[in-house]
Amino acid sequence: MADYAKLPTGATLAITPFKAHVAEEKLQHFKTLLHLSPVGPAVFENTHAGNTYGITRDWLQNAKNTWLNDFNWRKHEDRLNSYPNFKTSVQDPEGNTIDVHFLALFSENPHAVPIALFHGWPGSVCDFFDMLDLLRRKFSPADLPYHVVVPSLPGYAYSSLPPDVDYGIDLAAGAMHSLMMGLGFGSGYLVHGGDLGSFVSRIMALQYAECKGMHVNMMGAPALDENPPRSEDEKKA
Question: Is the CB of residue 185 less than 8 Å from the CB of residue 7?
Answer without folding.
Answer: no
